TrEMBL record:
This is Uncharacterized protein.
Length: 49
């Protein structure tokens, strides 16, 4: 069985990661994942034509 402390720590880390991600979006910082997806979509679009 996983210790409660470990679960709490995981939950806190996850919540922090989500909060940081929200702040990055609010402040308009570079979002590598989104940019990567957009680039991939553009590339596949170019390949289709």
């Amino acid at each position: 069985m996983i210790p409660i402390k470990t679960l709490v720590a995981c939950f806190v880390c996850l919540a922090l990661a989500i909060k940081v991600n929200e702040w990055l979006h609010i402040f308009g910082f570079f979002d590598p994942l989104k940019s990567h997806l957009v680039i991939n979509m553009k590339d596949s679009h170019l390949v289709d034509k």
